[in-house]
């Protein structure tokens, strides 16, 4: 079956709010095995909304609309869909009673007259009770297809979809889509694609889709199956082959695990502590690590040594090194990493120094970054020439710093 999303609201169209509902619903539909080819955002205009509904019904089996079910005059979704599908509105006593109960149990006082609009439902509609608001959801079935109308606030939409819409769609969709994420760091998107070209060209079921992230490539392997067990069986050999081809560049196959989470997991596994010594990233690397729950067990200290004086005083970088090679150099980052270990008595230290821009320094180009990792008396240093603005350079440096730490742990401990 195919699904299509229509997000209703001028505030979305104008960019006043982020359309998180579309992202959530698209992911849920994919997980249910529904194919999706179109999404639309429509303002609070009856004529344009009606056109969008007619178009969607002409090319999709399931049309999901979010927003426009409120009590005000510009909430047009219910009325417009009823008109397009020729399902006249009629009062629903069950919904009226729920609205009464909602206001009775709140501190909002008397029920505003316009709220009774929400108790008018299209003839023959399936009413979805809203446990978190006054606007009920609606399912309108017509000619073998259906429109699913959901309230706009995410705290109302998400529980309604998960508790009421998913079971409905599962009954209509005999197959499921089962997927697994493979996350790779340290290999560019074009390289990843070329290494997997034979698998991608031959794919039928499962399929492989690539997503480029800052410093990472994520692969979603998806199988269509009658049940989760069959899906897992189809996924397993493909994921195993990807891991074989990319080795330790694969840092996780868990959807919810980030690079910093994988690093903290390794630090805990091998009972290691880490310190960061940062210049151009200004604490961003430390922040990524401490964002992980439980990082306090492994994170010893973070140094932000933006000036040469701070590098000398806190990390014991030699004055002669800074004078001869400059703050942005292989020699300086090596001493930063070593100094961080001794200053904090940690097992490892990741150090970053570079030129984030917008201006070049010391006759060195914007985007030049050196990253070092000291572990067990050995220092690994890598040089990068990043592209992009100041923020982009710093973000890329953080990812490479985390990945260098991860690789150093594996090389030192996973033998």
Structure description:
This protein has 415 residues and is an alpha/beta fold. The chain folds into three domains: 2-172, Molybdenum Cofactor Biosythetic Enzyme, Chain A (3-Layer(aba) Sandwich); 177-252, Alpha-Beta Plaits (2-Layer Sandwich); 259-413, Alpha-Beta Complex (Maf protein). It contains 15 helices and 17 strands. The chain has helices at 10-13, 20-31, 46-59, 77-84, 93-104, 154-172, 189-195, 197-202, 228-246, 259-269, 284-290, 308-315, 319-325, 330-344, 390-413; strands at residues 2-8, 35-42, 62-66, 89-91, 120-122, 126-128, 137-142, 145-150, 176-185, 207-213, 216-225, 250-252, 274-278, 299-304, 348-354, 368-375, 378-385. Strands 2-1-3-8-7-6 form a six-stranded mixed sheet, with helices on both faces. The chain has a five-stranded mixed sheet with strand order 14-13-15-16-17, sandwiched between helices. Strand 7 (137-142) and strand 8 (145-150) form a beta hairpin. The model has no long low-confidence stretch (mean pLDDT 93).
Q: Can you give keywords for this protein?
A:
25% strand, Maf protein, alpha/beta, 15 helices, single chain, Alpha-Beta Plaits, elongated, 415 residues, Molybdenum Cofactor Biosythetic Enzyme, Chain A, 6-stranded mixed beta sheet, 3 domains
Structure in a nutshell:
This protein has 415 residues and is of the alpha/beta class. The chain has helices spanning 10-13, 20-31, 46-59, 77-84, 93-104, 154-172, 189-195, 197-202, 228-246, 259-269, 284-290, 308-315, 319-325, 330-344, 390-413; strands spanning 2-8, 35-42, 62-66, 89-91, 120-122, 126-128, 137-142, 145-150, 176-185, 207-213, 216-225, 250-252, 274-278, 299-304, 348-354, 368-375, 378-385. The chain is built from 15 helices and 17 strands.
């Amino acid at each position: 079956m195919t699904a299509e999303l229509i997000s209703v609201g001028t505030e979305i169209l104008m960019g006043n709010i982020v359309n998180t509902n579309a992202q959530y619903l698209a992911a849920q539909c994919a997980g249910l095995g529904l194919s999706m080819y179109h999404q639309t955002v429509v303002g609070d205009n009856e004529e344009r909304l009606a056109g969008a509904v007619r178009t969607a019904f002409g090319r999709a089996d399931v049309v999901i609309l979010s927003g426009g079910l409120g009590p005000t005059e510009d909430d047009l979704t219910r009325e417009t869909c009823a008109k397009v599908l020729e399902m006249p509105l009629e009062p629903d006593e069950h919904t009226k009673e729920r609205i009464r109960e909602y206001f009775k149990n709140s501190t909002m006082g008397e029920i505003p007259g316009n709220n009774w609009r929400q108790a008018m439902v299209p003839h023959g509609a399936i009413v979805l009770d809203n446990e978190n608001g006054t606007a009920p959801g609606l399912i309108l079935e017509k000619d073998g297809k259906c429109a699913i109308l959901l309230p706009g606030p995410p705290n109302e939409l998400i529980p309604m979809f998960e508790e009421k819409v998913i079971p409905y769609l599962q009954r209509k969709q005999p197959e499921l889509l089962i997927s697994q994420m493979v996350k790779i760091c340290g290999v560019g998107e074009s390289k990843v694609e070329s290494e997997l070209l034979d698998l991608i060209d031959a794919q039928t079921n499962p399929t492989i889709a690539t997503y480029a992230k800052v410093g990472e490539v994520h692969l979603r392997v998806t199988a269509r199956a009658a049940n989760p067990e069959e899906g897992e069986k189809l996924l397993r050999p493909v994921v195993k082959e990807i891991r074989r081809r990319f080795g330790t560049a694969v840092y996780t196959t868990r959807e919810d695990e980030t690079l910093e989470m994988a690093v903290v997991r390794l630090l805990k596994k091998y009972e290691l502590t880490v310190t960061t010594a940062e210049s151009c990233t200004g604490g961003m690397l430390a922040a990524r690590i401490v964002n992980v729950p439980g990082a306090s067990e492994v994170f010893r200290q973070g140094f932000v040594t933006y000036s040469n004086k701070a590098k000398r005083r806190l990390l014991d970088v030699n004055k002669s090194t800074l004078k001869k090679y400059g703050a942005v150099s292989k020699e300086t980052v090596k001493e930063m990493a070593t100094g961080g270990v001794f200053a904090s008595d940690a097992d490892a230290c990741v150090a970053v120094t570079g030129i984030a821009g917008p201006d070049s320094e010391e006759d060195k180009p914007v985007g030049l970054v050196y990253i070092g990792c000291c572990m067990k008396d050995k220092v690994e240093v890598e040089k990068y020439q990043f592209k992009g603005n100041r923020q982009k350079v710093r973000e890329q440096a953080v990812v490479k710093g985390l990945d260098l730490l991860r690789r150093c742990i594996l090389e030192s401990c996973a033998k």
